[in-house]
Amino acid sequence: MATAIAVTSADLVLPPTDPGTPHAAVLPAPGTQPLDASLADMQQLLARYGHVVVVCPTSAPAAVERRLLAVRALLESDRIALVRTDLPPLGAAVLVRQLRQLAGCDFSPGVLASAARLLAHYIYAGAVLGSVSRLDRVPVSLGSHLKSWLPGAHFAVLAGPTPQITRVGTGEKPLAGPEFTTELLLARGQLQTDWPTTTLVPRWRIQGATQEAPLPETSPGWWGTGKLVEFAAYLPDLSVLYQLVSSVRRETCHWCTMDLIGDRCGFCAAPLTVGTAPEAGGRGAGEAGGRAVGDGGHDVRALGPGAPRTASHGPGALGPGTPGVGGESTRVLRSGAHAPGALAPGAPAPGALGPGTPRPATPAPRALP
What we know:
Elements: E1 3-7, E2 25-26, H1 35-49, E3 51-57, H2 62-75, E4 80-85, H3 89-103, H4 109-120, E5 124-129, H5 142-147, E6 155-160, E7 164-167, E8 183-188, H6 195-204, E9 211-212, H7 219-223, E10 228-234, H8 238-246, E11 251-252, E12 259-260, H9 282-286, E13 291-293, E14 299-301, E15 322-323, E16 329-330
Parallel strand pairs: 1-2, 1-3, 3-4, 8-9
Antiparallel strand pairs: 5-6, 5-10, 6-7, 8-10, 11-12, 13-14, 15-16
Helix pairs in contact: 1-2, 3-4
């Protein structure tokens, strides 16, 4: 069965790029839905699709993550991946749409979940701000803080993949842009400026017409001001995305035996152990009576069928009694959240796709039922 892409906010759902792009399931916030209803919704997604990849920004309230952890723990399911992203709201929405596009292809759930970290390196997300005095998610120099008090001062800020800040105006330092063909998506707030279309588009050699979307509700809080125009430059073609992900060497998680790309499993968050094959250790070998390598490099006895997971049994587990949502005491599995790290050998570095890169024929997406 295909893999379902779920999100924690409707702001993360952009219009599909084509009729074959699968939809995303929006999980209601904990304050609007009781725990038993969240469990029922997740059970329906698992029954219909088999695996669920949930994208949850790191800027989301802590209660959202606690609810997701509680749901995964109570269901005792290893078919739910929690993907965290540091991208700003519009960039995170672009990432979700790219995952939705790839979900209609022939990628396994493990590859799809771990591909989020790779794709984030190719999304140039930023904003034009009227002030950076309250911006705390991108490093801001003292000089930029002082210039924020000047009348009419505007700043162009790039949050990723490499943070940058420059003051808009005469003698401004250009933001380092992508070295591959991209399209631009804009979301306008209260700031009146055409800088992204008049300056950024020609500098970054943006192809096609600039698209616009409603400003996400969480954008003013993320950027520290409502006077902004948020933007994101991204790879729009499914054929290029498919080539990018499929060109990275696939590994097998030594703990949950899921396929992965990069250096960490998207489902159980176990780091890639060089030279470790499923038959040499991990949960799959443990069921046959072998030994597994636990997190931190210590040898631990592998779990047999039906054995409970505790903190000493695997890289993604907390001990019993961890408080869940609303005071529930559950065995809560730790999130697959992690800071972006190095990619596995063979992963294409940002900038590898030039404007003249040949593009293979677009694979036929499979729409989710």
